[in-house]
Amino acid sequence: MLYILGILALIIIIIGITIIIIKRGNKEFNAKLTLKERVELEKMIEKKAKEQAEEEERKEKEEKRTEEIAPKVKPVFPSKDIKIEISRFATHIDMSNFKVQHSIRNGVENFLSLDYKVALEEFSLATELNPQDFTGFYCRGLTKLKLKNYESAISDFTESINLKMKEPNAYYYRALAYFYMRDIDHAILNFNSYISAESNYAEVYYDIATCFKQLDKDDEAIKFFSLAIEKDPKDELSYFERGLLKHKINDKESGCADLKKALEMGYLEAYDYVSELCKDKK
Length: 282
Hints:
Layout: H1 2-24, H2 35-69, H3 82-87, H4 98-112, H5 116-129, H6 134-146, H7 150-162, H8 169-180, H9 184-197, H10 202-214, H11 218-231, H12 236-248, H13 252-264, H14 270-277
Helix pairs in contact: 4-5, 4-6, 5-6, 6-7, 7-8, 8-9, 9-10, 10-11, 11-12, 12-13, 13-14
């Protein structure tokens, strides 16, 4: 019992001393270090800093090695040539369902052979065999887009998006379907959804600019033609279209500069416009 009381008393004394130290501050208890202690402290600090630097260097090398082993996959930009986009699935693999794999591959083969009827049948079969796989819906949507069955294509692209298709390309092709249906507002919304996921594709900025041009929103159209040029400085068509719009809003000097730039880059259709609109512009 006395032993326990002694321990309790010792704990109380320690707590009391700690409280006094905290209250009185550190100045009175900040004893000066000896030369030997200071040298040892500096060595310890230097050692810690060195270890931290080595650890950071090790992590950096490890991250670099990881990137070399598994480099980041570059995005596959969509193409208005649907044949190019659908060809990506010619070697589609589905280890869990070889029937789906066969239907997708067979559908692509028939699409490329221009037998769109059989292609649709094969892609539809794939959606029935695995309704949770976006591939059949997406390829079927591309086929319907090719056949100008826009409303049904939109439905398939929407299903692809709902099934968490990793790439944003379904937004792009759904935007094209809306554009071809003259539903410009929905086309713009879908092009913007594509940009939210992938902002480095110059073509989509040109497409949005074209939408705004059709809506007679010239300032917005010029803005997006400029963004297209920013993403691709060799985009002669965007220079040409921007030049015409600048002329339309009476910014003739800048408009002529764009038209001449398009002509210099090889866009020969700009020749007549330069000759007619830029006669007095050197």
